[in-house]
């Protein structure tokens, strides 16, 4: 058996291909070109692999080969393959040829790829430069990708392509800085949130602000089987396209990812009502300004019956939408929010009060600062549960000091995620929350609050009101401290005397 290509090799090769665009195109844009070309290369190589397989199986009978290929996941016309583009890498209209190939692939796979490539222009002068420079860059991109053999039979595992795609999205997010939060949630945070909502076999799982789809994919992996259905909506066209490609590369062909503004034009509809889900997760934009408050009172789905959030703060608009899309008896919801959503007053305070009184809020989890792309502020995870039953308590957990410090970003470690998850599960089971050695860790880390306590705090959910993280300083020994001061004064006097003697010797 020959050498099997590893994920690391793919990551290194494709990341090197990014040099084609560095310094020319903003990182938040050149991800579109690189990740799209990775998708084209993979689909082309799978097609080539299948053609070779059927050629051998049917002894070169072209009619039977073509008939068998019609049943494959993707159809790739001859003028849409990566090989065709590579053979024409010296063409004067290379950008146009790539655009035509993408359109042809869309047409051949209308049910899967409709509009996926419409926001990506390989012939853009404003992004890729004048014709000569543009052709040179695109040729270099094709040459770099030509070195990748992505035929499934040559890969080390089935998940390699999907995992490489995730790796590259993360790398682009790291490079894109403030713009990255629009399309990617850090992997460790996605893992934590996915585990907290505990997806089960048969669940419908939704992310109404799904970005590149990474959080949805993490949630699907927690199911432990293929018995789930994924739904999402994304407002940004190019990011929506990334999410669609991301699903296909993870072999999730039946995911429904809609393009549009969730708050003003929800697209996940059944009949005349919002579609309902078992699990809803999201990392929506923090405190979104101009989110659509003017139209909220007339919302046809009555999502804002608890109140209309402020025009300049869309946090509870997303929470309201997510709550209304969960099943009334089993729905679970996890959302990442800025800490301001825990204590701001006015209409947000009234909405927060109603959600608590309806016994929907289950947990408030404070996260470390500087975890997210584009903002250094600490965030929190709010867990809502339609199936809390007789348990009316709320878990408050302060995990703000549990992380690995990084140069540009902090990260949650596996042990940090495990500790949060174990504490949450113990709370749900009505158990005493303990640490690794059996010690009680509710003090300084977590606290089970009653509805009465929350009411007494005027429905303010600020974590320090419930989790006492104050560390008492060791008592100061006044006599010992005074003795140290006296000793230091004596030593200082001796040093000053020596300095004076030295200066006299030098004639000063």
From TrEMBL:
GO molecular function: DNA binding; N-methyltransferase activity; site-specific DNA-methyltransferase (adenine-specific) activity
Keyword DNA-binding belongs to the record: no
Location of the DNA methylase adenine-specific domain: 158-474
GO biological process, one term: methylation
E.C. number: 2.1.1.72
Reactions catalysed: a 2'-deoxyadenosine in DNA + S-adenosyl-L-methionine = an N(6)-methyl-2'-deoxyadenosine in DNA + S-adenosyl-L-homocysteine + H(+)
Signal peptide boundaries: none
Ranges of residues in domain N6 adenine-specific DNA methyltransferase N-terminal: 10-145
Coiled-coil parts of chain: 478-505
Keywords: Coiled coil, Methyltransferase, Restriction system, S-adenosyl-L-methionine, Transferase
Name of the protein in its database record: site-specific DNA-methyltransferase (adenine-specific)
Source organism of this protein record: Siansivirga zeaxanthinifaciens CC-SAMT-1
């Amino acid at each position: 058996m020959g050498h099997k290509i590893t994920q690391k090799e793919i990551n290194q090769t494709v990341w090197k291909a990014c040099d084609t665009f560095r310094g020319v195109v903003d990182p938040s844009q050149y991800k579109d070109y690189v990740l799209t070309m990775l998708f084209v290369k993979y689909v082309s190589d799978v097609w080539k692999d299948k053609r070779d397989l059927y050629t051998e199986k049917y002894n070169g009978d072209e009619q039977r080969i073509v008939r068998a290929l019609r049943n494959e996941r993707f159809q790739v016309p001859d003028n849409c393959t990566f090989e065709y583009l590579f053979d024409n890498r010296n063409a004067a209209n290379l950008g146009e040829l790539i655009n035509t190939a993408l359109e042809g692939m869309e047409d051949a796979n209308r049910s899967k790829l409709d509009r996926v490539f419409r926001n990506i222009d390989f012939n853009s002068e404003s992004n890729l430069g004048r014709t000569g420079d543009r052709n040179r860059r695109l040729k270099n991109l094709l040459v770099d990708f030509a070195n990748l053999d992505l035929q499934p039979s040559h890969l080390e595992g089935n998940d390699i392509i999907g995992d490489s795609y995730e790796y590259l999205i993360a790398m682009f997010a790291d490079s894109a800085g403030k713009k990255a939060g629009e399309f990617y949630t850090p992997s460790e945070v996605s893992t934590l949130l996915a585990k907290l909502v505990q997806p089960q076999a048969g669940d419908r799982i939704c992310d109404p602000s799904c970005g590149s789809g990474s959080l949805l994919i993490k949630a699907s992996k927690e199911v432990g089987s293929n018995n789930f259905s994924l739904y999402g909506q994304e407002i940004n066209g190019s990011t929506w396209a990334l999410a669609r490609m991301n699903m296909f590369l993870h072999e999730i062909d039946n995911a429904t990812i809609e393009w549009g503004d969730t708050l003003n034009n929800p697209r996940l509809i059944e009949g005349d009502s919002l579609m309902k889900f078992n699990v809803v997760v999201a990392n929506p934009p923090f405190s979104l300004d101009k989110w659509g408050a003017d139209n909220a009172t007339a919302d046809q789905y009555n999502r804002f019956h608890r109140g209309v959030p402020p025009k300049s703060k869309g946090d509870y608009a997303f929470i309201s939408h997510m709550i209304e899309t969960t099943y009334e008896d089993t729905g679970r919801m996890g959302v990442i929010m800025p800490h301001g959503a825990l204590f701001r007053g006015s209409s947000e305070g009234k909405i927060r009060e109603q959600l608590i009184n309806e016994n929907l809020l289950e947990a408030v989890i404070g996260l470390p600062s500087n975890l997210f792309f584009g903002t250094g502020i600490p965030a929190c995870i709010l867990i809502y549960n339609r199936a809390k039953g007789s348990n009316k308590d709320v878990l408050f957990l302060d995990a703000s000091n549990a992380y690995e410090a990084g140069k540009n970003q902090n990260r949650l470690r596996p042990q940090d995620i495990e500790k949060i998850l174990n504490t949450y599960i113990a709370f749900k089971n009505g158990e005493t929350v303990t640490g690794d050695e059996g010690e009680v860790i509710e003090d300084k880390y977590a606290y089970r609050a009653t509805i009465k306590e929350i009411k007494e705090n005027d429905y303010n959910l600020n974590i320090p009101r419930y989790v006492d993280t104050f560390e008492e300083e060791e008592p100061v020994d006044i006599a010992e401290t005074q003795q140290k001061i006296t000793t230091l004064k004596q030593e200082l006097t001796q040093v000053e005397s020596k300095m004076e003697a030295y200066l006299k010797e030098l004639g000063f």
